[in-house]
Amino acid sequence: MQGKNSFNEIAVxxxxxxxxxxxxxxxxxxxxxxxxxxxYLPRRYEDRREIVELKDVQPGKIQGVMGxxxxxxxxxxxxxxxxxxxxxxQGNKKLTAVWYNQPFMxxxxxxxxxxxxxxxxxxxxxxxxxxxxFEILEDKRLTNSLNMGRIVPVYSLTENLKQKYIRNIVxxxxxxxxxxxxxxxxxxxxxxxxxxxxxxxxxxIHFPHSYDNLEKAYRRLVFEEFFxxxxxxxxxxxxLRKRGIKHEINTxxxxxxxxxxxxxxxKAQKKCIEDIKKDMxxxxxxxxxxxxxxxxxxxxxxxxxxxxxxSNGYQAAxxxxxxxxxxxxxxxxxxxxxxxxxxxxxxxxxxxxxxxxKVKKELDSGDADIVIGTHALFQENISYNKLGLVIVDEQHxxxxxxxxxxxxxxxxxxxxxxxxxxxxxxxxLSVFGDMDMSLLTEKPAQRADVTTYFVGEDRRALVxxxxxxxxKKGRQVFIVCPRIKKTGSEDIKSxxxxxxxxxxxxxxxxxxxxxxxxxxxxxxxRIMRDFRAGKYAVLVATTVIEVGVDIPNVTVMMVEHAxxxxxxxxxxxxxxxxxxxxxxxCILLGSAKTEVSCQRLSAIAESNDGFKIAEKxxxxxxxxxxxGTRQSGLPELRFGNIVKDFAIMEEARExxxxxxxxxxxxxxxxxQGVKESIIKRFRGKWNAC
Length: 689
Ligand code: ADP
Ligand code: MG
Description:
single chain, CATH 2.40.50.140, Rossmann fold, 37% helix, binds magnesium ion
């Protein structure tokens, strides 16, 4: 945080009282040098400000008590335990402190010492305190104590490192090095946001003089951490939004866009289209995240962007995470655009080589206007004639890296990233903080309601009955299972087992299909097509149907072992139904064994609002789990918590973005501290961030 101050590199063992052995213990908890130590935040604090005299002791309470040592004894109890007893006295009051199995304690104490004990005082036949924290006041006064008579830090420790010891060492580091700490935040930012001085913050985070100071110190450290992160976001955003394509948007085709659809666009859709319009007609390239719950109509919005690019003579590529979804987009988009003379092409693994070659040629020559596909869009050696727009659907499945690769296929193509996993704003700002954002907050009106039930195994028979009823009415059903084949001894039904069981059992008179991720794509496609055509009433599948599948006649989704899915995923799955005019039902079958899984399943049963569910999920599972650890892009944080400290993050973001817009390369003298901190955070690579 403070640039190249030399003390950063000073190893902890150079602090008085830390030898090589202790240094090894410090290393275990990640502390190598002085700065590690200063940034080692207490896990919590104990309020030991009030130290009472013996006459004021209240039995039953945890408290600090001061008194004079009257006597000490070690004796062996009937059980063979060695017991050390220390008696404090004051006037005619006495208190006995007891330590079991620690006879060596006696060597610390002598009659006449003034000591402070901290712990729970109990009243048996006498006043007693067991295994208290203690401090012997050498000068008989409390003022210099690190352990008593103040708000005391409690650190996470490892074996053989004691609280008292680390407090002492931290205190030495603070007194010796505090004055060398440089404040990296620009003065105006500090003044505007009423942030305390950095040295004050470090001192008070360890040894706060009051809770008010502690809060100020914490806010200051967290602010700085977020500020640095957001400054990086701001820089990235600036870099990504280079001078780009300036599109003409007052064309007939675009004016008539709405008429392409049989429905009226929602207000939210119109607003998002406005955002895109501004981006694409502006000087700089678009880099926008379009967030909308399943079924909120993102595809329509993305089609507007496609039309802008194509009517300005550019090509556009749309990338979906699965073949099924790519095909579905292809069907929707080509149906609408082909009649306008726009050449829409599909490029996925499952099409045959000849067709693939043809599409590639058309992309190279410029005959193809729009291409929709999967990873194939950039994995193979494809060249575009004039790529101006890249749309990525269901973004959370793609890494940042892949996004970059695709955008490199054009000069400075516009980017629109769509996600149906509602991401709470706190996460958006910390992970996608470099993008602009549009939100589809409302759903098209005529969508059917989905009612969700969370039921236990005992209701299975009833669920089947209900499903058979729906089938009789002509509706269709998804049954989702977690796995393809049984693995290990876990009591999980595989998709195949489930399929067999149902086919021979309750659904023996019903046309049933099976689909899973390991099938060849042409097989999956055939099954999907037949299912859509009504050839099957029930589709037993893995989560391959998770994204994008749009079959209005499906009114029931039953999820086996629902407790095994994340909330976001369940919500995604549920989004596959309720796509028509019939009332729809999502039935989560599962056994919620833990409190947490019970909370989660109830959360999803109670709400249809993806954003609310996402917030809840984030709350219950924390940011790391929320995204799944791989490729999450979550920043490592030392101090701040993106959920709890969201308000601070927003302030820090505002300041960081305005700083970067005024001084993008951080050349001003005043901003050198920020620059150094960024460099430090990125291990010396200014241009990498
Ligand atoms: P998403 O991709 O956000 O899950 P889609 O774009 O696939 O949602 O839209 C879901 C369904 O709603 C599609 O069948 C689409 O045609 C329909 N739809 C989209 N916008 C509207 C609207 N404004 N009014 C009515 N139906 C709409
Ligand atoms: Mg979609």
